[in-house]
Specification:
Layout: H1 6-37, H2 39-50, E1 51-56, E2 63-64, E3 70-82, H3 87-101, H4 105-117, E4 123-129, H5 131-138, E5 147-157, H6 164-167, E6 170-172, H7 175-178, E7 191-193, H8 196-200, H9 202-205, E8 210-216, E9 222-223, E10 229-232, E11 240-241, H10 246-255, E12 262-268, E13 274-280, H11 294-302, H12 324-334, E14 350-353, E15 356-359, H13 371-377, H14 380-390, H15 392-402, H16 425-431, H17 439-444, H18 454-465, E16 469-471, E17 483-486, H19 491-504, E18 520-528, E19 536-544, E20 552-558, H20 564-584, H21 594-600
Helix pairs in contact: 3-4, 10-20, 12-14, 13-19
């Protein structure tokens, strides 16, 4: 083998050394670039892999009643979430959580569907976990690396079912809601108002969520403290003050028979603020906190009594005799009747009109009556004749002007408008015939194509209790209040109507048994005809101190209650009495419940409309 010359070897060695030096130089440059020039970039990337921001829910604003008592606030609760991971890992983690949380296969599929929509956000699995559940999960942290536990505020309604329909309830935001404009900026897992005040004032009650930074390892498991470090503190929602009287709401819930369905609306005469808004049967909004159990939801939605249905603002019923005051007000306003005027035909149990005999509720009749006494005895024959004097077209026109064909405008998400013909074309469109003047006889006594909510009737009686005008009922205490409409009655005419209502609860009136010891109670009983079963019972009341301005309006509707005097009037009287006793510091001794009233009391022989 030929030996190479030493010079050649030396040159090759020098070349290799140069190459090695160049490579080493390049490595040094790269290391310098990485370690020095881009050290901050790599440090941030490392930190982003090691640290993970998580949302911190904000407490919802506290809700207070008119006296500053808490209706809804927040207590500490625990939530269970899964950190972002591949879908297969999320499914496996949910299956691992199944025996601990008791979630079903259907629930797992629902959660996976939610996660697919927002795969970069933590998946909220349980928003109201018990302390025992949290303890069990904490013991299994190594087996469940993607599980994240945190303490979050939980809604609490201290009066439970007494405030169910007024407050509504809260729940996790749905995928459909996230697409709505009013939920722009919300994230999956947020708790939002679903009904009632919680939904109406969501923008005020919903605070601004904060950020928590937690440390995770290469597998995405939280290391160190679950609390992490606060990146940005959460901002609680704004507190709101309502016109509701919590004590009165609880009282109504106590005295309303749990075997009956109906509604109670109470308004403050001074400003039209809603003192009470109660629908029976009710529901406990605490059941919805953290997600309602499927079996409880099934019970609520399948119950034929419809406990989720707010009868105060959505239920529409024939207004019956309480509507006779509208006929009287329209007659006085139009000048077709005077307070002391008596109708040409005295009541002898009915009146003939055309080829039909229209009966009075009292078969033996009431005789010849003034307006106030016609209200006192609820004489149908008197109001038949008054309706004919007004005429169908004018009754429709004035009834719509007062507002019986539209909503009241209360600050709640849902409200039904009244059903009241806009004009005579209603009969042609609905039933295909032209109406005759006979239609006005039914409308004049609150029957026929006339259905109103308890809230609308309360607003009408609010106008009677005031100067003839009525603002829109409202729940927010400091909200703007505008006059909605006026009856256009002079003080003398208003006093005649009030005197008629006052005589209803005097000896011989249809609600005498519901008169109060300390207060001036004015009211009107009613029995609304129901083609689907037993008649509905009404009582509309105005109450206050003797010889002073009224202070509260109460309207009670009892479905299938039949007799307004026997069924609805005692509830209204007890409601007004309780409120006024509290206001004036008189001891509360009206402790006899309505059930006891039914067991020991006997309806008066005149108890009817």
């Amino acid at each position: 083998m030929k030996r190479q010359h030493p010079t050649v070897l030396r040159r090759r060695a020098q070349g290799a050394t140069a190459v090695m030096a160049i490579l080493l130089g390049l490595l040094l440059v790269a290391f310098f670039r990485i370690q020095v020039l881009r050290s901050e970039t790599w440090r941030l990337q490392s930190e982003s892999n090691r640290l993970r921001p998580l949302p911190v829910p904000a407490p919802r604003g506290t809700i207070f009643d008119r006296e500053g008592k808490i209706i809804a606030d927040n207590v500490p609760g625990y939530s269970v979430s899964l950190l972002p991971a591949p879908t297969d890992s999320i499914r496996r983690s949910l299956q691992d959580l199944q025996p601990i949380l008791g979630i079903t296969e259907e629930r797992i599929e629902e959660l996976l569907q939610v996660y697919r929509l927002r795969p970069t956000d933590p998946l909220l699995v349980e928003s109201d976990a018990s302390f025992e559940t949290v303890s069990a999960l904490s013991e299994r942290r190594m087996q469940l690396p993607e599980v994240f536990l945190e303490m979050r505020p939980k809604r609490r309604y201290q009066a439970g079912a007494a405030v169910g329909h007024a407050m509504g309830y809260v729940g996790e935001i749905t995928a459909e809601e996230l697409e709505q404009p009013r939920f722009v900026g919300y994230e999956q897992g947020a708790i939002v108002g679903k009904e009632g005040i919680e939904r109406q004032y969501e923008t005020l009650l919903q605070g601004t969520q904060g950020t928590r930074i937690v440390e995770v390892d290469a597998l995405g498991r939280v290391v160190g403290s679950f609390r992490g470090q606060t990146g940005k503190p959460a901002t609680p929602g704004s507190p709101i003050h309502l016109t509701l009287d919590l004590a009165l709401m609880e009282w109504i819930h106590r005295i309303f028979p749990d075997s009956m369905r109906g509604a109670v609306v109470a308004l403050d005469v001074q400003d039209g603020g809603v003192l009470a808004l109660y629908s029976s049967p009710s529901y406990d909004p605490n059941l919805f906190v953290g997600g309602i159990a499927p079996e409880i939801w099934s019970d609520l939605t399948s119950d034929e009594a419809r406990p989720l249905y707010n009868r105060t603002t959505l239920g529409r019923y024939p207004p019956a005799s309480p509507w006779k005051l509208a006929t009287a007000a329209i007659g006085l306003q139009l000048g077709v009747v005077t307070p002391e005027e008596r109708m040409p035909v005295p009541c002898r149990g009915g009146i003939q009109f055309g080829n039909r005999f229209f009966r009075c509720w009292q078969p033996r009749g009431h005789g010849s009556l003034s307006l106030a006494d016609a209200i006192r005895h609820s004489c149908d024959v008197y109001f038949y004749q008054l309706g004919l004097r007004i005429g169908l077209s004018r009754l429709l026109e004035e009834g719509n002007r007062i507002g019986f064909g539209r909503q009241c405008g209360i600050d709640l998400p849902q409200e039904s408008g009244g059903i009241f013909p806009e004009d005579t074309g209603f009969w042609e469109e609905r039933w295909g015939y032209r109406p005759t003047e006979a239609e006005v006889l039914s409308l004049a006594i609150g029957q026929g194509p006339n259905s109103q909510t308890p809230l609308r009737m309360a607003q009408f009686y609010l106008a009677l209790a005031r100067n003839g005008s009525a603002p829109a009922p409202h729940l927010l205490r400091d909200g703007a209040v505008a006059e909605a409409w006026s009856l256009n009655l002079d003080p003398g005419s208003l006093e005649v109507l009030r005197e008629g209502l006052r005589r209803v609860v005097r000896p011989g009136g249809t609600a005498y048994m519901s008169s109060l010891e300390h207060w001036d109670l004015l009211g009107k009983t009613g029995t609304g005809e129901n083609p689907h079963g037993r008649d509905h019972a009404w009582f509309a009341a105005i109450a206050g101190p003797w010889n002073e301005d009224p202070e509260i309006v109460v309207v009670v509707l009892v479905e299938f209650g039949e007799s307004g005097s026997r069924t609805a009037a005692p509830i209204a009287a007890k409601t007004a009495d309780y409120f006024l006793r509290l206001r004036y510091g008189i001891p509360i001794d009206t402790v006899q419940t309505l059930r006891e009233h039914y067991m020991v009391g006997r309806p008066a022989p005149w108890a009817a409309r």
